[in-house]
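Example 227.
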Amino acid sequence: MNAFDDLAGGLVVSCQPLVDDPDDPMRDAYVQARVAAAVVRGGAVAVRANGPEDVRAIRAAVDVPVIGLHKDGHADVFITPTAAHAVEIAMAGAHIVAVDATDRPRPDGRTFVDTVRALREHTDALVLADVSTVAEGVAAVEAGADAVATTLSGYTAASPRTDGPDLALVARLAAAVPVPVLAEGRYRDVEQIGRAFAAGAHAVVMGNAVTSPLWITRRLVSAIRPA
Ligand SMILES: CC(=O)N[C@H](C=O)[C@@H](O)[C@H](O)[C@H](O)COP(=O)(O)O
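Predicted structure in complex with N-acetylmannosamine-6-phosphate:
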Protein backbone atom coordinates (compact mmCIF):
# COMPACT_ATOMS: atom_id res chain seq x y z
CA MET A 1 0.00 0.00 0.00
CA ASN A 2 1.25 3.49 -0.78
CA ALA A 3 -0.26 6.94 -1.32
CA PHE A 4 -1.13 6.08 -4.93
CA ASP A 5 -3.57 3.41 -3.70
CA ASP A 6 -5.67 6.19 -2.14
CA LEU A 7 -6.01 7.79 -5.58
CA ALA A 8 -7.47 4.77 -7.41
CA GLY A 9 -10.52 5.67 -9.49
CA GLY A 10 -10.57 9.21 -8.15
CA LEU A 11 -10.29 12.82 -9.21
CA VAL A 12 -7.10 14.65 -8.26
CA VAL A 13 -7.36 18.43 -8.39
CA SER A 14 -4.42 20.65 -9.18
CA CYS A 15 -4.54 23.86 -7.14
CA GLN A 16 -2.12 26.25 -8.79
CA PRO A 17 -2.04 29.80 -10.09
CA LEU A 18 -1.65 30.14 -13.86
CA VAL A 19 1.89 29.32 -14.91
CA ASP A 20 1.98 31.91 -17.69
CA ASP A 21 0.49 34.82 -15.76
CA PRO A 22 2.74 36.17 -12.99
CA ASP A 23 -0.05 38.56 -11.97
CA ASP A 24 -2.67 35.87 -11.36
CA PRO A 25 -4.36 37.16 -8.16
CA MET A 26 -4.67 33.51 -7.02
CA ARG A 27 -0.87 33.42 -6.56
CA ASP A 28 -1.13 33.23 -2.77
CA ALA A 29 -0.56 30.26 -0.47
CA TYR A 30 -3.52 31.06 1.79
CA VAL A 31 -5.85 31.26 -1.22
CA GLN A 32 -4.56 28.01 -2.70
CA ALA A 33 -5.01 26.28 0.68
CA ARG A 34 -8.66 27.39 0.82
CA VAL A 35 -9.18 26.19 -2.76
CA ALA A 36 -7.61 22.86 -1.79
CA ALA A 37 -9.88 22.53 1.25
CA ALA A 38 -12.89 23.18 -0.99
CA VAL A 39 -11.95 20.59 -3.62
CA VAL A 40 -11.28 17.98 -0.94
CA ARG A 41 -14.66 18.74 0.59
CA GLY A 42 -16.04 18.19 -2.90
CA GLY A 43 -14.47 14.74 -3.10
CA ALA A 44 -10.99 15.20 -4.60
CA VAL A 45 -8.82 12.24 -3.57
CA ALA A 46 -5.57 14.22 -3.70
CA VAL A 47 -4.31 17.72 -4.40
CA ARG A 48 -1.48 18.75 -6.71
CA ALA A 49 0.31 21.98 -5.80
CA ASN A 50 3.30 24.08 -6.80
CA GLY A 51 6.08 25.45 -4.62
CA PRO A 52 7.13 24.90 -0.99
CA GLU A 53 4.94 27.68 0.38
CA ASP A 54 1.72 26.41 -1.23
CA VAL A 55 2.56 22.78 -0.38
CA ARG A 56 3.10 23.67 3.28
CA ALA A 57 -0.16 25.65 3.49
CA ILE A 58 -2.13 22.94 1.68
CA ARG A 59 -0.68 20.14 3.82
CA ALA A 60 -1.99 21.99 6.87
CA ALA A 61 -5.44 22.41 5.30
CA VAL A 62 -6.26 18.94 3.92
CA ASP A 63 -5.94 15.31 4.95
CA VAL A 64 -5.48 13.72 1.51
CA PRO A 65 -2.17 13.01 -0.27
CA VAL A 66 -0.42 16.11 -1.60
CA ILE A 67 1.43 15.86 -4.91
CA GLY A 68 4.04 18.61 -4.83
CA LEU A 69 6.05 20.06 -7.67
CA HIS A 70 8.39 23.00 -7.92
CA LYS A 71 8.12 25.01 -11.11
CA ASP A 72 11.25 27.01 -11.77
CA GLY A 73 12.85 28.79 -14.68
CA HIS A 74 11.95 29.21 -18.32
CA ALA A 75 14.14 26.47 -19.77
CA ASP A 76 12.54 23.38 -21.31
CA VAL A 77 12.59 21.53 -18.00
CA PHE A 78 10.71 23.64 -15.46
CA ILE A 79 8.66 21.14 -13.41
CA THR A 80 10.92 20.23 -10.46
CA PRO A 81 13.99 20.64 -12.66
CA THR A 82 16.67 19.50 -10.19
CA ALA A 83 17.19 17.07 -7.30
CA ALA A 84 17.45 20.05 -4.94
CA HIS A 85 13.97 21.30 -5.98
CA ALA A 86 12.56 17.81 -5.46
CA VAL A 87 14.00 17.35 -1.99
CA GLU A 88 12.83 20.83 -0.98
CA ILE A 89 9.26 20.03 -2.01
CA ALA A 90 9.28 16.73 -0.15
CA MET A 91 10.63 18.50 2.95
CA ALA A 92 7.76 21.00 2.63
CA GLY A 93 5.37 18.08 3.12
CA ALA A 94 4.57 16.59 -0.28
CA HIS A 95 3.75 12.88 -0.03
CA ILE A 96 4.41 12.53 -3.74
CA VAL A 97 6.86 14.65 -5.75
CA ALA A 98 6.08 15.28 -9.42
CA VAL A 99 9.23 15.59 -11.52
CA ASP A 100 9.82 16.26 -15.24
CA ALA A 101 11.02 12.87 -16.50
CA THR A 102 11.74 13.84 -20.09
CA ASP A 103 15.29 13.34 -21.32
CA ARG A 104 15.81 17.03 -22.06
CA PRO A 105 18.81 18.82 -20.49
CA ARG A 106 18.30 20.03 -16.93
CA PRO A 107 19.65 23.29 -15.50
CA ASP A 108 22.07 21.45 -13.17
CA GLY A 109 23.28 19.07 -15.90
CA ARG A 110 22.04 16.05 -13.93
CA THR A 111 19.37 13.47 -14.79
CA PHE A 112 15.95 12.22 -13.64
CA VAL A 113 17.69 9.19 -12.09
CA ASP A 114 19.72 11.55 -9.89
CA THR A 115 16.49 13.14 -8.66
CA VAL A 116 14.94 9.76 -7.84
CA ARG A 117 18.10 8.77 -5.98
CA ALA A 118 18.16 12.02 -3.97
CA LEU A 119 14.49 11.66 -3.00
CA ARG A 120 15.03 8.06 -1.87
CA GLU A 121 18.11 9.02 0.11
CA HIS A 122 16.72 12.04 1.92
CA THR A 123 12.91 11.58 2.07
CA ASP A 124 10.02 9.09 2.15
CA ALA A 125 8.24 10.80 -0.76
CA LEU A 126 7.02 8.82 -3.73
CA VAL A 127 8.02 9.87 -7.25
CA LEU A 128 5.53 10.82 -9.96
CA ALA A 129 7.16 11.08 -13.40
CA ASP A 130 5.62 13.78 -15.60
CA VAL A 131 6.09 12.62 -19.19
CA SER A 132 5.04 13.46 -22.74
CA THR A 133 5.64 10.14 -24.53
CA VAL A 134 5.46 6.40 -23.90
CA ALA A 135 9.25 6.05 -24.20
CA GLU A 136 9.74 8.66 -21.47
CA GLY A 137 7.26 6.80 -19.25
CA VAL A 138 8.99 3.46 -19.73
CA ALA A 139 12.41 5.02 -19.03
CA ALA A 140 11.05 6.77 -15.94
CA VAL A 141 9.76 3.51 -14.48
CA GLU A 142 13.10 1.85 -15.22
CA ALA A 143 14.69 4.76 -13.34
CA GLY A 144 12.49 4.03 -10.32
CA ALA A 145 9.38 6.22 -10.68
CA ASP A 146 6.42 5.01 -8.61
CA ALA A 147 3.84 6.30 -11.11
CA VAL A 148 3.67 8.27 -14.35
CA ALA A 149 1.47 11.15 -15.48
CA THR A 150 0.72 12.45 -18.98
CA THR A 151 1.22 16.03 -17.74
CA LEU A 152 3.74 17.10 -20.36
CA SER A 153 2.01 15.80 -23.47
CA GLY A 154 1.48 18.80 -25.71
CA TYR A 155 4.20 20.79 -24.00
CA THR A 156 7.33 19.19 -25.51
CA ALA A 157 8.71 18.98 -29.04
CA ALA A 158 8.20 15.21 -28.89
CA SER A 159 4.43 15.35 -28.29
CA PRO A 160 1.48 16.66 -30.30
CA ARG A 161 -0.49 19.61 -28.88
CA THR A 162 -4.12 18.61 -29.11
CA ASP A 163 -6.98 20.82 -28.01
CA GLY A 164 -8.22 18.19 -25.59
CA PRO A 165 -6.35 15.68 -23.42
CA ASP A 166 -3.97 13.06 -24.85
CA LEU A 167 -6.14 9.98 -24.24
CA ALA A 168 -4.05 7.87 -26.62
CA LEU A 169 -1.01 8.38 -24.41
CA VAL A 170 -2.97 7.23 -21.36
CA ALA A 171 -3.92 3.99 -23.14
CA ARG A 172 -0.41 3.38 -24.46
CA LEU A 173 1.23 4.04 -21.10
CA ALA A 174 -1.28 1.86 -19.25
CA ALA A 175 -0.34 -1.01 -21.58
CA ALA A 176 3.39 -0.36 -21.26
CA VAL A 177 4.17 0.27 -17.59
CA PRO A 178 3.41 -1.73 -14.41
CA VAL A 179 2.78 1.36 -12.27
CA PRO A 180 -0.25 3.67 -11.92
CA VAL A 181 -0.86 6.02 -14.85
CA LEU A 182 -2.35 9.42 -14.02
CA ALA A 183 -4.21 11.17 -16.83
CA GLU A 184 -3.33 14.87 -16.70
CA GLY A 185 -3.35 17.85 -19.03
CA ARG A 186 -6.32 19.64 -20.63
CA TYR A 187 -9.12 17.59 -18.98
CA ARG A 188 -12.20 19.80 -19.03
CA ASP A 189 -15.33 17.65 -18.55
CA VAL A 190 -16.89 14.46 -17.24
CA GLU A 191 -16.89 12.78 -20.64
CA GLN A 192 -13.11 13.16 -20.95
CA ILE A 193 -12.62 11.86 -17.41
CA GLY A 194 -14.69 8.76 -18.23
CA ARG A 195 -12.65 8.16 -21.38
CA ALA A 196 -9.40 8.40 -19.39
CA PHE A 197 -10.57 5.73 -16.95
CA ALA A 198 -11.72 3.56 -19.86
CA ALA A 199 -8.22 3.95 -21.34
CA GLY A 200 -6.68 2.60 -18.12
CA ALA A 201 -6.02 5.68 -16.01
CA HIS A 202 -5.52 5.06 -12.29
CA ALA A 203 -6.71 8.59 -11.52
CA VAL A 204 -7.48 11.77 -13.45
CA VAL A 205 -5.95 15.14 -12.61
CA MET A 206 -7.84 18.34 -13.40
CA GLY A 207 -6.39 21.78 -12.88
CA ASN A 208 -7.43 25.03 -14.51
CA ALA A 209 -10.94 23.92 -15.40
CA VAL A 210 -11.65 23.52 -11.67
CA THR A 211 -9.35 25.88 -9.82
CA SER A 212 -8.51 28.88 -11.99
CA PRO A 213 -11.17 31.60 -12.19
CA LEU A 214 -8.74 33.51 -14.41
CA TRP A 215 -8.38 30.64 -16.90
CA ILE A 216 -12.11 29.78 -16.86
CA THR A 217 -13.24 33.37 -17.35
CA ARG A 218 -10.74 34.12 -20.10
CA ARG A 219 -11.93 31.01 -21.94
CA LEU A 220 -15.61 31.97 -21.66
CA VAL A 221 -14.99 35.59 -22.62
CA SER A 222 -12.92 34.61 -25.65
CA ALA A 223 -15.78 32.36 -26.75
CA ILE A 224 -18.35 35.15 -26.64
CA ARG A 225 -15.99 37.85 -27.91
CA PRO A 226 -13.49 36.12 -30.20
CA ALA A 227 -10.34 38.20 -30.75
C1 LIG B 1 2.37 21.72 -18.47
C2 LIG B 1 2.26 22.26 -17.07
O1 LIG B 1 2.95 23.18 -16.71
N1 LIG B 1 1.39 21.62 -16.24
C3 LIG B 1 1.24 22.03 -14.87
C4 LIG B 1 1.59 20.95 -13.98
O2 LIG B 1 1.57 20.95 -12.80
C5 LIG B 1 -0.02 22.78 -14.55
O3 LIG B 1 0.18 24.11 -15.03
C6 LIG B 1 -1.36 22.26 -15.10
O4 LIG B 1 -2.36 23.16 -14.70
C7 LIG B 1 -1.71 20.87 -14.58
O5 LIG B 1 -0.88 19.93 -15.21
C8 LIG B 1 -3.16 20.44 -14.83
O6 LIG B 1 -3.49 20.56 -16.17
P1 LIG B 1 -4.79 21.37 -16.64
O7 LIG B 1 -4.74 22.71 -15.95
O8 LIG B 1 -4.68 21.44 -18.13
O9 LIG B 1 -5.99 20.54 -16.18
